[in-house]
Amino acid sequence: MTEVKFRGDLGANSDSLFKALSDGTRRALLEYLVREGEQNVVALTAVAGVSQPMVSRHMGKLKRAGLVTARRTGRETWYAARTKGLGPVVQWMAIYGALWSQRFTPMEHAGD
Amino acid sequence: MTEVKFRGDLGANSDSLFKALSDGTRRALLEYLVREGEQNVVALTAVAGVSQPMVSRHMGKLKRAGLVTARRTGRETWYAARTKGLGPVVQWMAIYGALWSQRFTPMEHAGD
DNA sequence: AATTTTCATAATCATCTGGTTATGAATTGG
DNA sequence: CCAATTCATAACCAGATGATTATGAAAATT
User: Fold this and answer.
1) What pLDDT shows up at residue A63?
2) What residue stretches are annotated with the HTH arsR-type domain (chains A, B) (predicted)?
């Protein structure tokens, strides 16, 4: 239910994407991966401020949302930010953001 | 709690922003406002697929997140998409999106 | 072989959240 | 003045969600 016929959504998984981004801890983990590159669960747990199982679950959601990749080697799982994962959000921003704010020029300098 | 010392957040309300965007119905309502311009609750309810009280609550969240404005005239409340509301998300995308996808030219490729 | 490390999953729990119906306050209209 | 319209809020409910501790499997180390 909750059909909203006029919805201009970008696929069903764009919902899981927005949901994945809605949690601060999850965003922080993703940001960390972007900045520091591939990390295993121990490293992520050390920095996340929540328990290891919680980190695993958060990473699971990020993975299902397409925002990270998981590479298992031996007993470790290495997570990395997934390049194209934000695509649908970018698209959404393009459609519903650029329409009204043209300040969409992403700036070449990330950290400055 | 849940302190994550490395978090590069853009203000506390950026959290309410992402949360506001995490719900599909809310996104749909926002999209509708962007496309159709200022609307009152009756119009929004007609199109939202949920009850009027629910629409009111959704609009409340969007308002608190800075994504819409509310203008009351008589017994009607007119909601409109708020231009600058997506700013923090755009910034976040710029920092954590542009870093890895060298630059997101949004409209170019809608399919992939 | 025994132990430690790494990770995911299960069992629980409290809280948040989306949804509903009911109600009531204003405003508008007959 | 009474009725209808518009909206927000309250009361309530079911399910999702973030968090914890406990556990167990698999790999690495001793």
Assistant:
1) 98
2) 6-101
Q: Between chains, do A110 and B98 touch, taking CB under 8 Å as contact?
A: yes
Distance CA A30, CA A59 (A): 9
Looking at the structure of chain A, the number of domains it has is 1
In a domain, B109, yes or no: no
Give the confidence band of B102 by pLDDT, cuts at 50, 70, 90: very low
pLDDT of A79 above 80: yes
Interface of A with B in 60-79 (CB under 8 A): none
Q: Which nucleotides of D are covered by protein (CB under 7 A)?
A: 5-11, 17-23, 25-28
* CATH value at residue A88: 1.10.10.10
Work out the number of other CB atoms within 10 angstroms of the CB of residue A26.
Answer: 23
Owner of token pair 């400055």: A112
Asked if residue A1 is part of any domain, the answer here is: no
pLDDT at res. A97 = 72
C-alpha angle A23-A28-A30 in degrees, rounded to nearest 5 = 95
For nucleotide D17, give the residue with the nearest CA to its C1'. A23
- Is residue A8 in some structural domain? no
B15/A7 touch (CB, cutoff 8 Å), yes or no: no
